[in-house]
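Mods, move this if it's the wrong board.
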Amino acid sequence: MSADQMSVGELLAATVPMARTLKLEFLETTAERAVLRLPDQPEYHNHVGGPHAGAMFTLAESASGAIVVAAFGDRMDRAVPLAVKAEIAYRKLAMGEVTATATLGRPIADIVAELDAGGRPEFSVQVSIARADGAVTGEMEIVWTLRPHS
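Not the wrong board. Structure tokens:
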């Protein structure tokens, strides 16, 4: 299967080894929203029996990457998406499986217009991490850029 025939989830699982290692599940990947789940796996637990902070960070960052690929994948011949910085806040104890939901912070058209004008656009992606009962356990903001190929 070529990259053009793969879904966003399949593409990321094939190209990002950490997503495979954590067995992340790609539930929804569109240009408007990406939803990924981290199954409950004892080998990735912390000292209190829930998902390790590093695993939740990877889940959230992967959700942000999924929405970026869904939104800008058709422009990868012109630019490479790169995470610039990330900030995460752990709000409540996470236990069991957790789900990350990512949304873009700027309209796609504005980002593309900046790229088309020769710029290197930066934009944020907001991610909410929730337990199975819906309680938000963490929030992350990741700033991405589309770096034009030289």
